[in-house]
Design a protein that fits this description.
Structural class: alpha/beta
Number of strands: 12
Distance between the termini: 51 Å
Shape: elongated
Strand order of the largest sheet: 2-1-5-3-4
Number of helices: 8
């Protein structure tokens, strides 16, 4: 029986059992394995890891652990006072786009409301999500950490919060998207960009009170749904403003 010592930093502790959080701990093993498999055996998806130090030197996921190794695992966006490190995460996606799993329907609408490109269907299976992520270069948003452990997945994030508004704040902060917000510019149902439309061309499709009180309208060219600044607009605009300003 061999032994290795591990320490996970910052938000990576979210994945660990309570007894292993925020401290260095020992782990016994019989057969040598890759450091990637070792890390994921503790529930930490590789997509959450940006840097691994073994005995003070940076290694990649293929490194085979040895008896007595001291392993430090760091998340994305951590700062380090060291040189010649080997970052493991692929470069950030140039254009932030996402595909969300079936548990994140409400979050999807919040993100679309802010103009973010999020694909979602309530019957997506894991294979479809991974395929879309790789083909369209979309980061996976999920409540299922298992999908992020798949070897082919390169960009993804496990959502910690349970309520949609908190989840939206979490995603914006995690991906630094405050400057990407373009509120009320995307269809909440289809994910397509909305286009301005003249009131007179759709007036026969509007409720009488809306036709009388509103003058600014937008329509989705896919589902033809019409949008205007309704009763919830002011509250949602306040919420979006707080996110943009980091309140």
């Amino acid at each position: 029986m061999h032994k290795v010592y591990l320490r996970f930093y910052e938000e990576l502790n979210d994945f660990l059992s309570k007894e292993n959080r925020k401290k260095r701990f020992a782990h016994q093993f019989i057969d040598r394995t890759s450091v990637k498999d070792l890390i994921e055996s503790f529930g930490v998806p590789h997509t959450e890891v940006d840097l691994i130090l073994v005995n003070g030197k940076s290694v990649n996921f293929k490194y085979l652990i040895n008896d007595g190794d001291d392993v430090s695992v760091y998340p994305v966006f951590e700062s380090f006072d060291i040189t010649e490190v080997q970052h493991l995460r692929p470069k950030p996606l140039r254009k932030p786009k996402f595909v969300a799993d079936v548990h994140l329907g409400r979050l999807t609408k919040y993100l679309r409301m802010m103009g973010l490109d999020v694909l979602y269907k309530n019957n997506f299976d894991d294979d479809e999500i991974v395929s879309i992520s790789l083909k369209e270069k979309r980061a996976i948003l999920t409540k299922d950490r298992g999908i992020l452990k798949r070897n082919e997945v390169t960009h993804g994030y496990w959502i910690r919060a349970t309520k949609a508004e908190a989840q939206a704040k979490e995603v914006l902060e995690r991906f630094n998207l405050q400057k990407e917000i373009k509120e009320f510019s995307r269809c909440l149902e289809c994910n397509e960009p909305l286009k301005s439309i003249k009131k007179e061309t759709i007036i026969d499709q509007l409720p009488p009170k809306v036709a009388k009180s509103q003058n600014e309208f937008y329509r989705c060219h896919v589902c033809n749904k019409i949008y205007w600044k309704g009763t919830h607009h002011k509250r949602m605009l306040s919420f979006i403003t707080s996110l943009r300003e980091g309140v």
